[in-house]
Amino acid sequence: MARLHVGCAMWTHKAWPGRFLPQSLPAKERLRAYAGWCNAVEGNTTFYATPARTTVATWAQQTDPDFRFVVKLPKVVTHERRLVGVEAEMRAFLEAVEPLGERAVLWTQLPGSFGPADVDALGRFLRRLPADRRRAVEVRHPGFFTDAGSTALLEGTLTDADTEWLPFDTTVFFQSPPTSEAEQDAWVKKPRLPRRTRALTNRPIVRYLGRDSIEETVEGWRPWTAVVAGWLREGRSPTVFLHTPDNDDAPALARRFHDDVRKLVPGLDPLPEPEPVEPATLF
C-alpha cells in the first residue's frame, strides 16, 4: 500500500527540546524521540564525513523498518571529484550505511556547476551503484530546468538507472525579500530554481523550503499537497521534507503537511501520535 513519509533536515535542533523532544536526551536516544514525530529524515551530516558503521547501526536500532533515511553522499564524491575516481570512498560509504538496509536512499546532491555536459559521468556513476540501493539525484544547474533537451537528457539517464530526480522547491521562499536573520542567511545560500513536480520512480522525494511565517509556509505548499495526493492515488510512496529558514517548527509542520494530504486521500494511514514532552521546569 502507498505510504507518505514526512520529515525534516535533521533529527535534533536547538529549538526542539521541551517542545518536540525531551529536555535532556543522550545522543543515542534523540533519533528515537524524533521518530515519534516524523517517519523520515535527511542525512545531511554524511555530506561532511562518512559515519562509523557502529554509529549507523544505532540509527537503525532507534527506528522502525518503515522509517526512511535520505543520506547525502560525501562531498568528496559529489563536489570535489564530481563522481569520478571515487571507488574507494563509495565502498567505505556503502559499507558504513549498510545497517540501514532498505531504510536508506542514496542522495547524490550535485553542485550548480555540474551541468548537462556532465550527465555521462553521472550515468556511469549510477550504473556502478548496487542495484538494490534506492537512489535520488538533486541537480542545481539551471539548464536542467530551463532547456528541454537537457531536461530530457537527465530524465533519460535517471530513468535508465531507476533513480529519482529530487527537487528542492524554494519558489515560495524567494517570492518576497527576507525579513529575519535566518531568512537572510537562506536567501544567500539556497538555490533559486523553477518548481519541478514530475516523478520518475514509485518513490518520489521532495524538499520544500517555506518561510519564517507558518501561514506563508502552509499556503505555499498547497501545490504539493495536490501533487503528492496524485502520486499516492497512482500507487507511489512519496517522501516530503519540510524546511523553514530556522527549522524551529519543522516537525510540527511536517505532520501538518501529512494531515493536509490525508484530507485529500482519506484512506492514507495517519502518523503515530508522538510521546508527550514534559514541559521545562525551573528545578
From TrEMBL:
It holds the Pfam family DUF72. InterPro entries: DUF72 (IPR002763), UPF0759_sf (IPR036520). It comes from the Bacteria. This is Uncharacterized conserved protein YecE, DUF72 family. It comes from Kibdelosporangium aridum.
